[in-house]
Amino acid sequence: MKDFYEWGSGLGRKVSEVNSRLLEAIQSDQEDLFSMSRYTIEAGGKRFRPLLTILAYQISTDADYRNILDLAAGYELIHTASLLHDDIIDKAATRRGRPTLNSIYGIDNAIVVGDYLFAKAYELGSRYGPAVSKIMADASSRLAEGQILEAVNLGNIDLKEETYLQIISNKTAKFFEACALGATVASGAPVEVRESLKNFSYNLGMAFQVTDDILDVIGDPNKMGKPVFTDLKHSAITIPFIHALANVKPREREEFIRLMEDPADQDNDKRIKEIIVTSGSLDYSFSIAKSFTETALNSIKGTRRTPDLDLLIELAMMVVQRIQEI
Ligand code: GRG
Question: Which DSSP state fits 65?
Fold first, then answer.
C-alpha cells in the first residue's frame, strides 16, 4: 500500500500548480514578510486539503480544474496559518521536518505571518462569491472552537469520548468537509453530489485524525518522522487513553494515570502501550477509525465512478491501512 506522499506524488502536477498559486498569493512588497511566509509555504506538507478540493471539483464537473486552484490554495493557507499558531501555542521547535517559524523569527513575527496567510486565504476564497466565502469562514471558526475545546480539556482524565469526537470534528473533519463543500458549491454540482462528497470528506477527516491519534501511541517513530506520545506530552487526551481510563480496573487505572504523567520515561512508555493493548483500547480505537472510513466510502457509493473518485477511495483505504501495517 502507498503512503500519503506516494499517493500525492501521483498528483504531482497539481501539487506544483497549487504551490505556484501559494507563492503568488503571498507576494508582498514587504520583503521580510514575504520571505517568512515563503519559508513556511516551502516547508511543504502533504497538501491534502488542496488535493481534496481539486478532486471534489473534478468529480463534480467537467470544467477545467484550474478554475478551483485559488480556492485549493486558500484552504492550504488557512491550514498553514493554523499550524503556525499551533506551533506557537505548543512552543514547537520543528514542523514538517524543519525548524518552526517561531523558533527562527520569534513568536511575534510568527503570529503576524499567520494573520497574513489568513488574510490572503480569504482574498482567494472571495473570488468564488459569498456562499464559498462563508464555507471557508465557518471552517475557520470550527478550527478555533476545536482548539479551545481541546485547550480547556488538557489533562482532563475524565474527558468523554463524545467531547473528544467533537474536538477532532472541529479541528480536522469539518475542515476536510469544507474543502469538498466549497469545491462543489463553486462547481454548481447537484445537491446529491455535493452531499456525498461532503459526507465522504467529513468522515475521511474523522478517520484520519483517529488514526493519527492511535499512531501517536503505537506508531514507529522512524516511519512517522516524529516521536510517539506527542499528544500526551502536551496533555492532550485521545481515544486510546479515554477508552483505557474508562475500562481498566481501579488499581490499574491509578497506575495508568501515574504513568501518563511521564510518558517520556522509557519504562512508562512500554507499560502505557501494554495497558492500551491488553485493555482492548487499541482494538476499540481502531474499530472507530474503520467505522468512519466505512461511512466515508458508503457516502460515495452512488457517485459516478471516475479516476478521480478512485483516488479518493484509495486515500480513504490508506488512512486505516497505516495501522494495519504496524
Ligand atoms: C488560525 C483558524 C485559526 C485557528 C487558530 C491554533 C488553532 C486555532 C487551531 C489549530 C488547529 C490544528 C492544529 C489542527 C490540527 C489539524 C491537523 C490534522 C494537522 C495536521 O495536518 P496534516 O497531517 O499536516 O495534513 P501537513 O503538514 O501534511 O499539512
Answer: G
- 98 SS3 class: strand
Determine how many CB atoms are found less than 10 A away from the CB of residue 109.
16
Query: How far is residue 261's CA from residue 267's CA, in Å, rounded to a whole number?
Result: 13
178: cell is 469544507
Q: At which residue does the C-alpha cell 469544507 appear?
A: 178
- How does pLDDT run across 241-286, given as a tens digit for each residue? 999 999 999 999 999 999 999 988 888 889 999 999 999 999 999 9
**DSSP-H helix ranges across the chain:** 4-9, 12-25, 31-42, 48-60, 69-90, 101-105, 107-126, 130-152, 161-168, 174-187, 191-218, 221-224, 230-233, 239-247, 250-260, 266-278, 281-299, 307-324
Q: Does the beta carbon of 85 lie inside 6 Å of ligand 1?
A: yes
For the chain, domain boundaries: 4-324
> Domain 4-324 belongs to what architecture?
Orthogonal Bundle (1.10)
CA dihedral (149, 155, 158, 160) positive or negative: positive
230 C-beta closer than 6 A to ligand 1: no
| SS3 label, residue 95 | strand
Distances (CA, A) of 297 to 93, 280, 291, 293, 314: 37, 26, 10, 6, 10
Max CA pair span of the chain: 62
Please provide the average confidence, as pLDDT, over all residues in the chain. 95
Integer distance in angstroms from the first to the last C-alpha of the chain?
12
Q: Is 48's C-beta closer than 6 angstroms to any atom of ligand 1? A: yes
**Is the pLDDT assigned to residue 317 strictly greater than 90?**
yes
Q: What ligand 1 atom has the least distance to the C-alpha of 209? A: 18
DSSP 264: T
DSSP 3-state assignment of 94? Answer: strand
3 state DSSP class of 304? coil
Question: Could you tell which of 4, 52, 138, 143 is best to mutate to test the pocket of ligand 1, judged by most ligand atoms within 8 Å of the CB?
Answer: 143
Which pLDDT does position 1 carry in this prediction? 65
